[in-house]
Design a protein that fits this description.
Structural class: alpha/beta
Number of domains: 1
Distance between the termini: 23 Å
Order of helices and strands: EEHEEHEE
CATH architecture: 2-Layer Sandwich
Oligomer: single chain
CATH superfamily: 6-pyruvoyl tetrahydropterin synthase/QueD
Number of helices: 2
CATH topology: Tetrahydropterin Synthase, Chain A
Strand order of the largest sheet: 4-3-1-2-5-6
CATH class: Alpha Beta
Shape: elongated
Number of strands: 6
Length: about 150
């Protein structure tokens, strides 16, 4: 059998700030993020399976990514835990705030997303690649092969 890659795209809105950064991103600001999740596997060959010919049902991948990432991060403000008090975030305006243990850059968010996803996939499916687009012209990528 041949190994196949499947990719599912997701979009979400999120704000963040990079405390201590020497540019404009030190201020609270938002992005329209695009997340591409790529998995690999061998299509099911069991003729009695309802998933015959599939590596994974796209709907199942969508449920996993939505539950693990999108539902939490969409329309949220993400701040590094130790710097949250420095931003004087109004609870009414920023009620959906996520405090993380890392600087919320695209790079660090990808590392977080990998950890959230890797154990949620079926045993026969492996996480291959994540791409997180922060702007129309800028994105960060994670590849499993780079991290083995």
């Amino acid at each position: 059998m041949q190994t196949i890659r499947l990719t599912k795209e997701f979009k979400f809105e999120m704000a963040h700030a990079l405390k201590g950064y020497d540019g404009l991103c030190r201020n609270i600001h938002g992005h329209s993020y695009e997340l591409l999740v790529t998995v690999t596997g061998i299509p099911v060959s069991d003729t009695t399976s309802t998933k015959l010919g599939m590596v994974m049902d796209f709907g199942d991948l969508k449920k996993i990514v939505r539950k693990s990432i999108i539902d939490e991060f969409d329309h949220a403000l993400v701040l590094k835990r130790e710097s949250a008090d420095d931003f004087n975030v109004d609870a009414e305006m920023f009620g959906r705030t996520i405090l993380v243990d890392y600087q919320p850059t695209s790079e660090n968010m990808l590392i977080d997303f990998v950890e959230r996803l890797k154990n949620q996939l079926p045993a026969n499916v492996k996480l291959h690649h994540l791409l997180l687009r922060e702007t129309v012209t800028s994105y960060a990528e994670w590849f499993a092969a780079d991290n083995e």
